[in-house]
Amino acid sequence: MVRGSVGVIFGETGTFEFKVMVLDSSKVYRGAYVKVWHDASSDEKDHTWVLGQVMAIKRYSDSFSIEEAMKGQRTDKSDDKIVAEIMIIGSRDELGMLRAPVIPFSPGSPIFAADEGLTRSVLGLTGNEMSIGLLEGTNIKVQLSVNSLVQKHCSILAKTGSGKSYTASVLLEELLDHNIPLLILDPHSEYSSLKVEGEGSQEDFSRFGVKPKGYGSNITVYTPANKALNPDADELFRLNGMNLTVNDLTAIFPDNFSTTHTGILYEAIQKVRTELETYTIDDIIFEVGNDKSKAKWIVINALEQIRDTNILSPNPTSIEELFQKGKASVIDFKGVAPELQSMIVASLCSSLFESRKLNRIPPGMLVVEEAHNYAPEKGFSKTTSTDILRTIASEGRKFGLGMMVISQRPARIDKNVLSQCGTQVIMKVTNPNDLKAISKGLEGVTSYVEEELMRLPPGVAMLVSNEIERPVLVDIRIRKSKHGGESVNVLKAARTVTPPPPPEITYNEPEPSTPAPVRREMPPVSVPVAANENATMVDVPVMEVPGKEKDLAPPPKRKPSRAPRNEAGNEAGGKLFKKLFGRTDN
Ligand SMILES: Nc1ncnc2c1ncn2[C@@H]1O[C@H](COP(=O)(O)OP(=O)(O)OP(=O)(O)O)[C@@H](O)[C@H]1O
Ligand SMILES: [Mg+2]
Fold first, then answer.
1. Strand 328-332 vs strand 110-113: parallel, antiparallel, or unpaired?
2. Do 159 and 110 fall within a single domain?
């Protein structure tokens, strides 16, 4: 036995695989990396260490037959044989190209546990900026390159509860450590916890070589609702409500808006522009009201619904404020109805892309949680945000705008978006359609990879990237900051005495101070509003899609002057606001 060897090659050998009689089972296990000296060729420049990986492992005994087994338990296990199947990965030549041997290894050659240098160089793990964890079963750090991850986009895919948000946060921490601007679309209020230092055992932190860290002042949480509905938010998020163009409005309208409707809107905006230097959505509504066709009602209805969400403001949140070096802006969609979320995402991402193209903001990354909701695959559903996310996926890299796509349903994300992701971090997936969607988008994914994905333990991810030679398993590192996506312990909650519900939130819009548009007198609101202010609204209402049937109010008369917004209309607007955003008591 050669000193340090962990096995010996035997039997028939090929250029892609061989079998090994295992001598040290603590070093040779499924997934372990091994090396073997290749000197079968007569050409000395081919003599090199070659990296291989254990794909399967079997154990058997010659002496313990079925007859012996029928007799009962076996005490002497000394003649057990362990045989491993090794897949050859290859070696790097002097030009750094991956080469596989062309002449098979000789039976009798010893194999050794692979060292870090060989493993890193052959696998192509040459990034050195973002530490995301350890190569499964080793102490080898897996590091990614910031440029490659951001420019070429990345996806994080796994079934629910498998650690997507956790892994995404690990990547975000690393990006924040490199001052990369981040814009996070957060439907479940999970990412504000990046502010807080993480908890965990000292042993785990030192195993991964990281220290607990909260990103406090680097994180700003914005709410498209208001602070009464989302008290944890730091700032309000508002879209520009002044001098809206047809494009601005069609970007936030659902797709069922026809060319007739767009035409009516176009004419109205043209007219308002000739009359007023600055105009609001109220002015547009008034002008659409003067149209003679019946189709105007659909347009008025859509415009009114958008206006009544209060998402439009004369003091919009600027992209320059959201996207800054070293800052993560979290758009927390808590309590915002799905259609409105999609409108906001469409409008926000369009501005983000345009601003980046014009170099008004630095390069950075857009993070899309639950991406199947914002860019669904055709045939599943339709949303306003799909087009712009598709555009960012295909053109973002030219402008240094990266996208991180996170989803539990890979089969339901737009294929154009998913296929553009150069780095894929995949955790446990069991749904056959999702497995198919993943393997379709990945080159060289074998049935072995699909098998592996179904069996991944918690906290372990498969990393697939253009930069690395083959998929590798990564033990994802512990978070530096606190995890915000903890599951609710249903049993514990049921055993806990429920405190009385908090008092009803009375809506008092705390903004804005600058000259604001006149709000026309509110027509009777068609959705039933709670009869008294203390009534509890249990259901979270969903914003109706413009164009759906609704009692239509006559168009308003334009008022001659622009009074502050805190007027009579606001009260009714507040109730409707609550209806549309839902009430969140938790
Ligand atoms: N690498 C890891 N190390 C330690 N714990 C982890 C790791 N990954 C996930 N977890 C734990 O697993 C649980 C689920 O993780 P996470 O919230 O990220 O799942 P998810 O895939 O985002 O789920 P959902 O589909 O519900 O959004 C968390 O409570 C987290 O603490
Ligand atoms: Mg999650």
1. unpaired
2. no
Closest CA to 61 of 82, 84, 83, 80: 80
Same domain, residue pair 463 and 332: yes
Spatial CA neighbour of 568 closest among 518, 510, 515, 532? 518
b/e sequence 114-124, b meaning 16+ C-beta within 10 Å: beeebbbebbb
Q: Of ligand 1's atoms, which has the minimum distance to the CA of residue 370?
A: 27
Is ligand 1 within 6 A of the CB of residue 162?
yes
Ligand 1 proximity of 166 Cβ (cutoff 6 Å): yes
| pTM, two decimal places | 0.80
pLDDT digits (tens, 9 = 90+) for 394-429: 999 999 999 999 999 999 999 999 999 999 999 999
Query: Which range of residues forms the domain containing residue 358?
Result: 145-195+209-227+318-487
User: How many structural domains does the chain have?
Assistant: 3
Residue nearest to atom 5 of ligand 1 (CA): 459
Q: Is there a single domain that holds both residue 305 and residue 325? A: no
Is residue 447 domain-shared with residue 471, that is, in the same domain?
A: yes
Residue in the block written with tokens 């007027």:
567
Contact 198, 212 (CB under 8 A): yes
Q: Which ligand has the minimum distance to the alpha carbon of residue 167?
A: 1
Do 306 and 330 fall within a single domain? Answer: no
| Pocket lining: 193 vs ligand 1, CB cutoff 6 Å | no
Residue nearest to atom 2 of ligand 1 (CA): 459
Report yes or no on 33 lying in a domain: yes
